[in-house]
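Pasting as-is:
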Amino acid sequence: MTQLADPTTSAAATRTRGQNPAPERQTLRTEEDLLTVRHAVRAATLKAGFGIIDQTRVVTAASELARNAYVHGGGGTLAIEYLSRAGRTGLRLTISDDGPGIPDIDAALTDGFTTGAGLGHGLGGARRLMHDFEVHTEAGRGTTVIVTRWTGQ
């Protein structure tokens, strides 16, 4: 299993039971689902109190990651979680697919690298747009990308 993560941030963010709702889930099976994901994430950024620039960052990252799961992983799921830490709110997006996995994470995070017809900015771009970024992948078992962005940071 290949994993790229910052272990100092994964445990630092917690979903407070009773205050934050259970994760919202979206299915990624069709082109229309990609639009539904964008709208759901945009609504979540508003609910979490993000400003317009951070809303755009989170929606763009979600759109890129959802498209990757759809195109390269054959579809998947998105979970949206509301987080609290030190009086700030955040959003954690978890995008998972059951595709072939990413054979070379370092290459996939390099701008311009693509296995399809895209520009090759999706995975690396999403990493730059979010505060926390993790990739868990295994050949033949799919990929999960977990990204988090905080308000006021």
